[in-house]
Amino acid sequence: MSTIFFLRRTVGLIFTPYATMRKISLERKMGEIVWIYCLTILYFFIGTSVHVWVSGLMGALGLFCLSIFFLSLLPASGTYIQRLKRIIATWSYTLVPTLLWFYSTLFFYYIIPPPRTTSILGISFSIFYIAFSASLFVWKLILIYLCIRFALRVQLYRILYYLLLYFAISLPIWLALYMAGISRIPFV
Amino acid sequence: MKQNTKELLKEHLREINIVEPNDLGIPQLTLIYRNMNVFFKTAPFLFIVPLSILGAALLLFLFGYLAVRIVSLLQYGF
Fold this sequence. Notes:
The complex is a heterodimer.
Chain A: H1 2-15, H2 17-27, H3 30-47, H4 50-73, H5 80-93, H6 95-111, H7 120-151, H8 156-179
Helix pairs in contact in A: 1-2, 1-3, 2-5, 2-7, 3-4, 3-5, 3-6, 4-5, 4-8, 5-7, 6-7
Chain B: H1 2-16, H2 27-41, H3 45-63, H4 65-76
């Protein structure tokens, strides 16, 4: 049953992100977001060699927990527990574009291995890949905006301020993970 | 049935009103924001995908080989 709900919500986030995220923040069903965590673990398991998959997963888990912790500390309406539940439910769904990007990049890596060239096929794929990545990135930004909007129930200026604060804190962490060789592109 | 519809409508109204409408302080700015917001509330990919393709083509036109290298880097970056 939770699988159907998860799929419905994922499709909803594509076609009606605003209404779907609002519903997620209201219903806060923890059963369906388990699928996101399972898919994340599966990605790290199949995506990397046995040596690094644990560190990659730990890095992703650390980033996820830090994001939740950071958002839960921000002033918003409702009690701390209510807020935390809303944040966990909505923030977990912001991982859907991330998962989609990482899975598809993994797929393309095996189907059309890099490096890309300046041949017609190479340029065509480059255009497709940049457009695909940019679309998912914008979708991700929309979902993060909606997550803060409905989980913390704040206005636009405050959302922008929180986002700025979030990126200012996250950038050094992402850089540290890159330097440590855990993740080249942060799994957020 | 009528009662049920009324209850559903009340529930929907309650759901809609969980957050206050955005007010940017300046009425014109709020209006622009609301007009733009419509595109992102329902089927945002209708706007995102064409803009992304245009952006990617522009990037490739402006930076050429650098954009192709970015793709290689991204492909190695997972």
